[in-house]
Specification:
- By secondary structure, the protein is of the alpha/beta class.
- It has a single domain, classed as Rossmann fold, CATH 3.40.50.1820.
- Helix content is about 35%, strand content about 20%.
- It contains 11 helices and 10 strands.
- An 8-stranded mixed β-sheet has the order 1-2-4-3-5-6-9-10, with helices on both faces. Strands 7-8 form a two-stranded antiparallel sheet.
- β1 and β2 form a beta hairpin.
- α2 packs across α3 and α6 packs across α7.
- The radius of gyration is 19 Å and the shape is globular.
- It starts with 8 loop residues before the first strand and ends with a helix.
Length: about 290
């Protein structure tokens, strides 16, 4: 067995006093690619993508704070900008810039915000369903009275404080839950995602690794105009990929792409929110030529 046949190596870095985790797939002399997962997910969700790209790229995949094998925040706050700080810190510490970033869902929102803040450090940007909030939805959210947004946030936290992590008697039971959430997964995919996404409790049961507090939405967010000015700065070639069977609106129809100066959008038929799981071959068929340009 060669080093290339082995899986990734685990590493840790410190960000805002939190011990955060990432995996490195080797090939350090190749162009760097950073993989950023979505909410309630983990870095090993990218394994199929990483195993293909590692031949030509130096691939790293991060566990965001509150996810996977990274530390949870003390308290209840997971604002978007703290995730951006963590990504910036990792890229700077590992000297990855200029780096290509591939991201999913909440990870896409984080990566787009990072790329608009530090455009000179991003070579290429791929997002899978990263524009969760349309301009119209941002305007609607901002139009709510401040006291209502704060009180809704407080109520969310009250509910989450009494919500205990679900315990599963076996991994098989959790795999069944995983497949119920995304019926497009093969049994092997569901088993892999579940195995890396769970921790065993002291009583022998299993629970998901993510912190339940990540479910709470901050009462404050960028306005549509702020988002537009930020995304105008995403000057690198940007590929936005969506699934035709997802709950996330088509970014072309929603007007979300109007802010980006150098963007292409592709919708993958027969795929839902997790395009890279639902149709890996088509996803790689889009991403590989884009990175090679």
């Amino acid at each position: 067995m060669t080093a290339h046949d082995l899986g990734p190596t685990s590493h840790a870095y410190i960000s805002q006093r939190l011990r955060l985790h990432f995996v490195d797939w080797g090939n350090k002399d190749a162009p760097p690619v950073l993989l950023v997962h979505g909410g309630r997910d983990h870095c090993r969700s990218w394994d199929w993508v990483a195993e293909d790209l590692r031949k030509d790229y130096h691939v790293l995949a991060v566990d965001l704070r509150g996810h996977g094998d990274s530390a949870w925040v003390t308290g209840s706050s997971y604002p978007l900008f703290d995730f951006v700080y963590d990504i910036e810190h990792l890229i700077r510490q590992e000297r990855l810039a200029p780096v290509s970033i591939i991201s999913h869902s909440m990870g896409g929102a984080i990566s787009l915000t990072y790329a608009g803040t530090y455009p000179e450090t991003v070579a290429k940007l791929v997002t899978i369903e990263g524009l969760i909030w349309t301009p119209a939805e941002l305007e609607k959210f901002a139009a709510q009275p401040t006291h209502e947004r704060i009180s809704k946030w407080v109520e969310q936290l009250h509910k989450l404080a009494t919500r205990h992590p679900r315990r599963y008697d076996s991994l098989a039971q959790a795999v069944e839950r995983m497949q119920g959430e995304n019926p497009r997964l093969t049994p092997d995919q569901a088993r892999h995602l579940t195995t890396h996404g769970m921790a065993q409790n002291e009583d022998g049961t299993f629970s998901w690794k993510f912190d339940n507090y990540i479910r709470a939405r901050s009462p404050f967010a960028m306005s549509a105009s702020d988002a537009h000015r930020l995304f105008e700065r995403v000057t690198c070639p940007t590929l936005m990929i969506g699934g035709t069977e997802s709950f996330v609106p088509d970014p072309i129809k929603s007007g979300a792409l109007d802010s980006f100066p150098n963007v292409k959008s592709v919708m993958v038929r027969g795929a839902g929110h997790w395009v890279h799981h639902d149709n890996l071959s088509e996803f790689l068929g889009l991403v590989r030529p884009f990175l090679a340009q």
